[in-house]
Amino acid sequence: MSVDVIDQEPAGAGTAGPGGPDAPAGPPPGRARRVARTARLWYGRLLLGVAALWLLYALIRWAVSGRWHWAIPLDAAPPLLLMAIPAVLLLASAASCGRRRRWGAGIAAAGLLLGLTTGSGLNWQALWHGERQVPADALHVVSLNTQYWGKAAGVERLYGLLHRQDADVYLLQEHVAWTPGLGEDGYARLNDDARLRAEFPGYHIARRGELLTVSRFPIVHKEVVGAGSDLAPGVPFKRIFERNKVLRTDLSVGGQTLSVYNVHVTVQLALDNLNPFSGFDFDAYFDRKFSWRQEEIKGLEKDLARNSNAKVIAGDFNSTAAMRDLDNLRSQATDALEVSDDFVPVSWKFPAPAEFEWESVFNRPLPFWRVDWTFTDGPVKAHRYELAATDGISEHRMQKLWVTL
């Protein structure tokens, strides 16, 4: 018997059932869904581009900082911003998709790591050390940029602030008369020696240019360090103000010698009386400021290297932790921040009266920078370091340090 085998079509073949080869395409996505998909695509691309540009900026800034006179526009960003921007980008990358999410997160993470490791300014030790004990015989050192000797706030308030500190040593900057609107030509010597002696009876006083050192201990030696140390007698005060930025005084303390360095490194850019539309030669201006700063800092480093005394170095360095100007100094001396309780130390720019020409634009309280520094070196031990308020007298915080020899 022959059997005819008939091929039967599998059930469901040729139907419009789900998953079938001839199944018709689903309805096209709605307009809202297409817009959302396109927006997410461009969001990812934009995020990737911004993260890449920020990383490029961070790398270039680090490469040229302290090495090129046009680095200042790049260096002006607060160290906190150098970490905050990539951190925000890292979080924002979660909203993108696919490769753009991975690449965006990776580039943002690289920027954040760069910000954390190249001068974040954060004081990690403050998170785990205990209360700082100060010996009864510790020397109390105060450093302050006085904002043109309390010109806008009033000199009486400034003296009151200083007397309340009852410090053994005062390292004061901007002890100078200043006329706003004249730029670099607006500085003049303060002829107030008699007032200083009356306000600080029993103290010993050394001054040069804008730098004023007041000490309970006898001053056995004083000299201008580095730039301007070779200025001829009788030069105009303007020249002394511009070039004498480090004043060293050696103090006799209990049979030992303590060298204190009063520092005010030249500011990179003075806004007063600078009109960007006047044809001003900013390249020459930045180059001159950069050269002066390098001379001042290198002169200080050189003097520290040959000085075997116990040393305290304090003042307004016009440099942040992210700037590389102080790299050698930070490796040569010890930052007093090690004995501070501040996790985020900032010393400028706090609310204080000012008299700049463009006050409404530039005189804003933006306390995001630490530009005031204190270091120790040699046989000296720091016990506590504080950045204290000045009651609105100065836009800088006051530096307070307790040390023993």
Give an account of the 3D structure:
With 405 residues, the protein is an alpha+beta fold. It is built from eleven helices and 14 strands. The chain has helices spanning 31-64, 72-75, 79-92, 98-117, 147-150, 155-165, 193-199, 237-243, 282-306, 327-332, 359-362; strands at 139-145, 169-173, 177-178, 187-188, 204-208, 211-215, 219-224, 246-253, 256-264, 310-316, 334-335, 372-377, 381-388, 398-404. Strands 5-6-2-1-14-13 form a six-stranded mixed β-sheet. A six-stranded mixed β-sheet has the order 7-8-9-10-12-11. Strands 3-4 form a two-stranded antiparallel ribbon. Strand 3 and strand 4 form a beta hairpin. The longest helix has 34 residues, at 31-64. Mean pLDDT is 90; it is low at 1-17.
| Helix-residue proportion | 25-40%
Beta fraction: 15-25%
Distance between the termini: 120 Å
Largest sheet: 6 strands, mixed
Order of helices and strands: HHHHEHHEEEHEEEHEEHEHEHEEE
Oligomer: single chain
**Radius of gyration from the alpha-carbon trace, in angstroms:** 31 Å
Kindly report the spatial arrangement of strands forming the biggest sheet: 5-6-2-1-14-13
Extended strand count? 14
By DSSP (H or I, 4+ residues per run), the number of helices equals 11
Structure classification: alpha+beta
Average pLDDT score: 90
List keywords for this structure.
34% helix; disordered N terminus; 11 helices; 6-stranded mixed β-sheet; elongated; 14 strands; alpha+beta; 405 residues
Short description:
With 405 residues, the chain is an alpha+beta fold.
